[in-house]
Amino acid sequence: MARLTLLLACLALAPGASEACSCSPLGTPEEALAASDRVFLGAATTVELRCDHPNTKPFIRKPGQGVEIVCTSPSGEEHSFPIKLATFMVSENFKGTGSVETLQTELYGAMCGVEFVAGEEYVVYAKRQDGVLTASLCSRTGVATDKESGLSVLRDGG
C-alpha cells in the first residue's frame, strides 16, 4: 500500500508529456539582464546531482518507459527528484561579481532544468531564490555561441 501511495504521489508530481516546461516569451537580453540577480559568461567545470532529503542519494531506476533518476534512502524508499548543481569558472561578469559561481537547476528539461555540460561555455542569467542562485530554461541561459544567449548585446553594454 505504501508503494502505491508513493507511486501515485510521484505521478502527480512528475511532469508528463502534456506538462512540459512552459515559459513566457524571453524578452530582450536587456530585459533578461534587468530581471536577473546574477549574469555572467562562464565555463561549467562540474555538474552533479544532489538530493535535499536527509540520508538520500540519487538512484537510477528503469521504469517501463525509460530511465529515471530519483532520490532514495538506504532502504530503497523514494523521496523526490534530485536537483542539478553546476559550478562555473566565470570569465566575464555582466551583473554581480565573482570568479566562481555554483547554481542549481531542475533535473529534467521538462521541469525547466538547463542541460549544463561540463566543459561548455554558457551565458547564465540566474535568479536568487531562498539564498540560492538558480537558472532555468525560462531565462536566456544557454550555450555562449547561441545567438539567443544575448552575449553580443551584453558585451555591447546591455
TrEMBL record:
Gene3D superfamilies: 2.40.50.120. GO terms for molecular function: metalloendopeptidase inhibitor activity. It is found in: Secreted. Keywords: Secreted, Signal. Pfam families: TIMP. The lineage of its organism: Bacteria, Pseudomonadati, Pseudomonadota, Gammaproteobacteria, Lysobacterales. InterPro entries: TIMP, TIMP-like_OB-fold. Residues 1-20 form the signal peptide. It comes from Luteimonas salinisoli. This is Uncharacterized protein. GO terms for cellular component: extracellular region. Its main location: secreted. The keyword Magnesium does not apply.
